[in-house]
Structure prediction request, 675 residues.
Amino acid sequence: MSTIVTVGAPRGSISLRSIVGRIGFLPALLVALVVGMSAVDPQFYGLINILNILRNASLLAIVACGQALVIVAGGFDLSVGAVVALASVVTAKTMAATAAAFPGNTALIIASGVAAGLGSGLVVGLINGFCVAKLKVSGFVVTLGTMSATAGVGLMITSGIPVYGMPDVFVKGFGRAQLFGLPTAVYAALAVIAVMMFVQRRTLFGRYVYAIGGNVDAAVVSGVSIQRHIVGTYVISSVLAALTGILLTAQVGSGQASFGGDRMMLQSIAAAVIGGVSLRGGVGRVEIVAVSALFLTILGNALNLLHVDSRLQPVFLGIIMVAAVALDEFSRRSKARV
Amino acid sequence: MSDLELSMTSESTIPKKSFPTEWLWRAVLPIALIALLLGFAAVDRSVLSPGNLLNIAQQTSYLALFAMAQTVVILTRGFDLALGPAVSMVSVGTALAMAGATAAGHDPSTVLLAGLGAGFGLGIACGLFNGMVIALLGVNPFVATLGSYNVAIGVATTLSAGRPVQGVPELFSQLFYGGSIFGIPAAISITLVIGLVLHLMLGRTVFGRSLYIIGTNPRAAAVAGLPVKRILIATYVLCSTLAALGAIMMTARTGSGEPNLGGSLSLQAIAGAVVGGTSLAGGRGGVGTAVLGALFVTILSNGMNLTRIDGYIQMVVLGAIVIIGVLLDRLRLERRQ
Prediction:
């Protein structure tokens, strides 16, 4: 399958079609959406709304980048939403506990909370990776299982009640702070995207992930250690989801087991898929996935501003997602025919 | 490439003379079921009381129906993530149609017909959408049904304005929940009948057999001249129709149309099918695996409820069970080779 794609792109002839094929129709859709909304509703390009969009898009983009990496390797991560929730409550609980033990030692409190949050993500990622790579259970089933288990642990720790008691510096000085007019989450997302772009293009790990997703057998024959790299993709995905959970916690000011959830998980997959990541594996770039996360966030925001009933909004999301993938499939087929 | 490889491995896995071990592997789940029941009974006697056993059977009949629906599409290497939201949508649609028909002053049988028509109509529409997007547009089943998942949630909550729909007539509840055939409660007898019909359909009809061929090797199915696209569409319609029937039965139980009825049913149904031994790689499974899996999941949660295990811990246990179930299935497959 993947051979068709690489052979199909004709070299030299830079037609409109090949440009569209290379960049995709996503940026065009994004520009159309922004221009259209700006014309309809001036509130759309108000500073508050733009900051709101950027903050939400950043959180989604971080999760979607990890999800994209897993899908490129030929897997799935259904547990990301639950990891966001778990990391949130673990971070908040740890900070509250450390604050009780060492009052006033803000640096230690924050460091331990963040470390515990990321650590919880690391553990879930390792379990996912171990079950998929070593026990060879399908990624869908494994992450379906860990999704349920992780959500259960998050609720168990908190009994479903929000956790408070984090230092002010963490919430006001980090989560809700702005640097050069932009929320901190935006910088975190940009850093993640930059690192992931580098990983995908320039590191052996990134190239091997493409190789594994494109053709496992060929990767095995070429001497790639499949297991280690698959574990790596699940760990990165979970740790990035945990990072989002921590950012969300800092922004809201409490740890909540209701963060993330199914909605975040489905949106991250939607962002990856609309961003051109093939569910067959081997194809996909994080920067386009990030643009796609921005697109999805703006779309939701636009529907809100246009006063589309919030209950009806999922209908649009669903149809756009299917249409995007159908278009992608269609262009692949027409390429294959050439 | 991988298609060919998969088909070869599953061809060679047809058991020939591995009589004792094969039977042992098959008996793992039933033995686990009985052990589970006895284990819970040791903690709390009431687990094995006739009342609770009937309760388990009744609860299983709903999940079994959904697991069967899910199994049908999983056989063809598909998925139906939209099953849960479709259940919500059908529940709301059925209740609304019946409430409307009652308000318009129609007689009870017309009201019933209106409700069933609306319910099955919505279910079939959902199945047609899934099937056509997957078969004709070539969209991955995961994405296609994730799309209709969102659409069905939107429709269900919009139609109901997010609130339960009242006005379900007594006759409807009586027929699909309260009543009984030969002393067997309605839900159980309906599931038994449907299970039997589906079992015969999967085993004895061209349509049923072709699902296994498509799941085992789609390319071979196409080369053999099977109308793969039409069969796939029919499969998703069958799946959604079964889900619609389950939704109607659950609506009769609650006595109102619930926009959140489906909740986590999609994943529960997949878990039920998979724990029972339905292979996500396609071509393996049936009514038996769906019922066994549903029974297992139901007994597990029933027992944990009765022995007062924290609901949050139950989620952890269920997650672990799903993974272990699939792991055991994979080990079984390897043993056969």
